[in-house]
Design a protein that fits this description.
The protein is an alpha+beta fold and about 130 residues long. The chain has one domain: START domain (Alpha-D-Glucose-1,6-Bisphosphate, Chain A, domain 4, 2-Layer Sandwich). The chain is globular. It comes from Sediminibacterium ginsengisoli. It holds the Pfam family START_2. This is START-like domain-containing protein. InterPro entries: START-like_dom_sf, START_2.
């Protein structure tokens, strides 16, 4: 059994949920900020970095303009990473919520890595 823990990060985004969802759920969008090359075939995404061997992730669940949840094929069956789009009630601001798993002593590093990735996403979005 995995010792990894679920952690959640939230990032306010100045962009519509529809546009943001395209960057989170389509191979072309993910290739803009998340991985060097992204392919999808029958709900299995293949992510490559620096020309290396692709990592494959299954889509566990998704809802247009709301969220997409992936499971790395090489990881524990209870682990996943998720991109969720929420709207705040008062200001109607769009929030990107990322859920992922990491060893307790690696959560800080993983959070920093996600922060870097999201910064690249915001750059691509012009947000």
């Amino acid at each position: 059994m995995s010792k990894k823990q679920l952690f959640t990060l939230e990032f306010p985004v100045r962009c519509s949920p529809t546009i943001l969802y395209e960057f989170l759920a389509s191979p072309a969008g993910l290739q803009e900020w998340f991985a060097d090359k992204v392919d999808e075939w029958e709900n299995v995404y293949s992510f490559s970095w620096n020309g290396g061997t692709p990592d494959k992730a299954d889509v566990l669940d998704k809802e247009q303009d709301k969220f997409i949840r992936f499971h790395w094929q090489h990881s524990d069956k209870n682990e996943y990473f998720e991109f969720k789009i929420e709207k705040t009630e008062i200001s109607n601001q769009t929030i990107l919520v990322i859920k992922d798993f990491a060893e307790k002593n690696e959560i800080k590093d993983q959070s920093q890595l996600w922060g870097y990735q999201v910064k690249e996403l915001f750059h691509r979005l012009g947000a």
